[in-house]
Please model this.
Amino acid sequence: MKKRPFLMASATIGAIFLFFLLLILASNSWQGSAGLVSVGDKVGVLEVIGPIEESKHLIDQIHAFRDNDAVKAVVLRVDSPGGGVGPSQEIYTEIKRLTAIKPVVVSMGSVAASGGYYIAAPAQRIFANPGTITGSIGVIMSFANYQELMDKVGVKSLVIKSGPFKDTGSATRPFTDEENRLMQLLIDDVHAQFVEAVSEGRNLTSEVAAKLADGRIYTGRQAQNLGLVDEQGNLQDAIDYAAAQVGLEKDPDLLYPRPEEKSLLDRVLESSLGSLATEIKTYHNPGLSYLWPGF
Model:
């Protein structure tokens, strides 16, 4: 008989432990605006901050919001100068697919240019601040050339290649005329893909979209007048609009993905010296970029 209170106490403690374990696991997966477990209908908020260098992390978040029945609409907060063509196009594709399932509304921060605009284009509604920098619809590809420096210090480069264009973009020699022509064709094709995305997403004719796609930047107010943005407004305006599309009240409960856990190395790279190294890597990468270099 004396064992019964002990067993009951043990069972109670075990149940409490299990409850808190499940609570921790749930909160580790998703955090609401107050950092609590998601309960009830919500507006999900995804954030794209800084250069777009990879797509997997954001795409995983998009899929999670897509599959979460509690997330009735999604707001995509963009504060980015763009980045790599590949990651931008991958994110664009997933945003476009998400719009077929749930309302997607974009809120532009300080900058939503080039690839930052590309990923916003398929949304049902785009909000920008009057002074947001957006546009920069175009493609850039940069190469460094050290031939003159190498000549001064007496360094020569020997290249053995399988074809005349295999070392196109080498830093040890300038482009030939034919290489310039081929690279321009490459840029033009990727630029045309950007124009098509803007034309489709913003319901503009190809001619109008092409005229806006000469690489220039626009303020949020200019972009609205040109049809690239729907409304002037901040993040809260975008959230309230998204909520209204699914029958929720203003100032709805929000759901943010759990912040990405970063290693010690990542944290070091985000120091002042690490940030400089990241910028050098980002802006001088010879790959194709939907990037506004003025960021």
